[in-house]
Amino acid sequence: MTDLIRTITLILFSFSGGLSGETWVSSEQKKLEATFVELSATENLTLLRENGQETSFHLSRLSNESQHLAKIRALEKKENEARKLLEKRRYFEAFKGRGVSEKDLENIITVRERQEKLEKIFSKIPDNFEARWPDRITLKKDYQISTQQPSPQRKEEMRSYIHVYESDHFRFECDRALTPYLVKKFCHLFETTLQICKALPLSLKKSQYQEKGYKHRVILTESDSDYYEFGGPPYTAGAYFPAQDLIIIPFSSLGVKYSGKKFTYDRKGDNKTLIHEIVHQLTEKTYFSHGGMGWFTEGLAEYVAAIPQQNHVIRLDTDFLTKHVKSYVCDGPSSSPSRRSHKHHVGRRLGTNIKVSSFQSFALQPYSSFSHPEDGNKNYGVSLLYIYHFLHLDRDRNRKPLKQFLLALKTGKTGEKALEALYDGRSEKELQKEIFTQWRKYGVNFSLERP
Ligand SMILES: [Zn+2]
Questions:
Q1: 72: CA distance to ligand 1 center in Å?
Q2: Domain boundaries in the chain?
Q3: Which letter, b or e, does each residue of 88-127 get, where b requires 16 or more Cβ atoms within 10 Å of its Cβ?
Q4: How many angstroms is it from 438 CA to the middle of ligand 1?
Q5: pLDDT tens digits, residue range 397-450?
Q6: How far is the C-alpha of 31 from the C-alpha of 25, rounded, in Å?
Q7: Which of 22, 36, 254, 366 could form an SS bridge with 73, CB 3.0 to 4.6 Å?
Q8: Angle formed at CA 216 by CA 392 and CA 259, multiple of 5 degrees
């Protein structure tokens, strides 16, 4: 599953605004840790101190360097606002003629602002790295499900309208009415994925956050063309847009079929694409930094999507899971029933002899190369085997190296610096050898492409 290139730039951009404070120096060389808020036309600067109090003063009271910094931050803010306007226009175009009001669009945009505030709240939730590995997760059987129908008057106004369904933690909107069975099916899928993410000791704080009224948003589109119209990237089966904290996914990726009268669920259809995108939605923003983006973020989404979800108990113990993961990556069905199927998560079909580049070059490659249509399928599969190694097979299985790596990302280390924490004193070669040796025990034969 590829995510939009644009979404990556959005992630990076939202970071540049600075979640944490920076150092401002006065013309008398006094220092202040604070976050930029705004610079007025009369050059009055407003900063947010670390104690949460705002402070305002004229720009000329700062050193030259800090004056320069304030001007850069002001420019970034303007750019950010322009970008929001552009996003709004894109949504407006997509929703045009569907009876969506300006106010609805405002709501879409404010989600992003809310998201930025929420990031700060998420960061206060304690890490759960020390929690025990959840060998078994017993799922909730019933969820609060609600359906919001548009008022008869609004229905009248609309050519087609948006149906809104809500479960405990998700709100999904659809341009067609869904049968109660389908609504229940999707709610179960959303909530199960959240429960798995919450139980994993990987500090996925968005999955732990619970506030009345706060829901993760998903838009389901009836047709593929609507999916592309909403901004779904070509050759993808679903996408997550971090800036709006929104998943968009077409019915064709959900096993939903139109039977001539109504939409039904194809039991043989698979929903791994949706699970994969939900994991992205629940993943910490910092894990998408250089060093984590790609091999870790995609590997994690693949990991959760590969977990068999049959009954109301999810098994995550190594004895059970290893063969499923291996089969998901290596076997997979041999036929491809639709043009989408090779991107659609029915397995990666990589076979058991896998040639790879060095771990570091794989982990640090640009996302555009990672998710390139030609290599994407293989890269996703390999990422899953790597993640699996760090979660289940590495060292004495205490996940210490992975934990160190994630903590490094959380504290702003990226690229090689973050990977160093993952190597945990091993050289890249030693680590690679360990991964190869572990997987060989289960019949997967990795080999290095010629350097
Ligand atoms: Zn993805």
A1: 32
A2: 5-13+123-448
A3: eeebeebbeeebbeeeebeebbeebeebeebbeebeeeee
A4: 26
A5: 889 999 999 999 999 999 999 999 999 999 999 999 999 999 999 999 999 997
A6: 5
A7: 36
A8: 95
